[in-house]
Amino acid sequence: MRPSGRAPDEMRSLSLLRGFSKHAEGSCLVKFGDTHVLCTASLETRAPHWLRDTGKGWVTAEYGMLPRSTHSRMDREAARGKQSGRTQEIQRLIGRSLRAIMELEGLGERQIRIDCDVLQADGGTRTAAISGGFVALVDCLRYMRDAGLIETLPIREPVAAVSCGLYKGNPVLDLDYDEDSAAETDANFVLTASGGIVEIQGTAEEAPFSEEQFLRLMRLARIGCDRIISEQKRVLGLK
Questions:
Q1: What is the spatial order of strands in the sheet that 58-65 belongs to?
Q2: Mind listing the pLDDT tens digit for each residue in 123-171?
Q3: What percent of the chain has pLDDT over 90?
Q4: What pTM was estimated for this model as a whole?
Q5: Which residues are annotated as a binding site?
Q6: Which residue, 41, 150, 176, 223, has most beta carbons within 10 Å?
Q7: Rounded to an integer, what distance in angstroms lies between the CA atom of residue 212 and that of residue 215?
Q8: Each residue of 202-215: pLDDT tens digit?
Q9: Residue 82 has pLDDT above 90, yes or no
């Protein structure tokens, strides 16, 4: 039995609320159960300097956790004077995941910055950020289209992410904190609507896991990402 009472292939409640932020070109408040992340997409008129005169744009991401997003208060990283290795790794993952489904030439020499701020954490903050970040990105691109900056949305297909793991020897989908902190293996899967693999992060916390166990986790991840993508399409009105 999982601590939450969920079935092995059952996700937490999922919510994607578009337009949460008044000022951002695109925004989404994403909730995976008790994990809540605010994703905003901001349009910048210049691409990074290394893309100058290439005609290509860029999508990048920043990630952070509010001081009381967890059980006890943490210091803001700005107060410490530097980002942790974990923060840098997560925001690079978010950026890679969103760039993977973009036609960057279609942006022109512009940049979209996805800010992912964790309001409340209960496991799976990076997967929620990727899934909500996609919604914010699409709405930013729609803003650009409506403003006449681009003609079509330069997106190949939706992308989503979900965590899976081995909890008490059993493969389970969408780990919350209680499971993640006790899992023998945990993994994050970033998958596209067509089933393409963008990235997989998997770690054995105790004994190594087998290929068969990995394939069972992969099957669960497909179930989870299919559900998330279905909800992304519904809230965005995509076919």
A1: 14-18, 26-32, 35-44, 111-120, 58-65
A2: 999 999 999 999 999 999 999 999 999 999 999 999 999 999 999 999 9
A3: 95
A4: 0.96
A5: 86, 124-126
A6: 41
A7: 5
A8: 999 889 999 999 99
A9: no
If one counts every other C-beta atom within 10 angstroms of the C-beta of residue 11, the result is 18
Is residue 78's pLDDT more than 90?
no
DSSP line for the chain: --TT---TTPPPPEEEEET-SSSSSEEEEEEETTEEEEEEEEEESS--GGGTTS---EEEEEEEE-TTSSSS----HHHHTS--HHHHHHHHHHHHHHHTTB-GGGG-S-EEEEEEEEEE-SS-HHHHHHHHHHHHHHHHHHHHHHTTS-SS--B-S-EEEEEEEEETTEEEES--HHHHTT-SEEEEEEEETTS-EEEEEEEESSSPPPHHHHHHHHHHHHHHHHHHHHHHHHHHT--
Q: Give me 115's structure tokens.
A: 């800010």
Environment class of residue 74 by beta-carbon count within 10 Å: exposed (0-12), middle (13-18) or buried (19+)?
Answer: middle
Q: What is the mean pLDDT of residues 14-19?
A: 98
Fold that domain 14-72+82-236 belongs to in CATH: Ribosomal Protein S5; domain 2 (3.30.230)
User: Quick one: which of 169, 238, 225, 185 has its CA closest to 14?
Assistant: 225
For residue 67, which amino acid is it? P
Residue 80 has pLDDT above 90, yes or no: no
- Which residues line the annotated binding site for phosphate? 86, 124-126
Instruction: Check whether 198 has a pLDDT greater than 90.
Output: yes
Q: Which residue has the tokens 């997003």?
A: 69
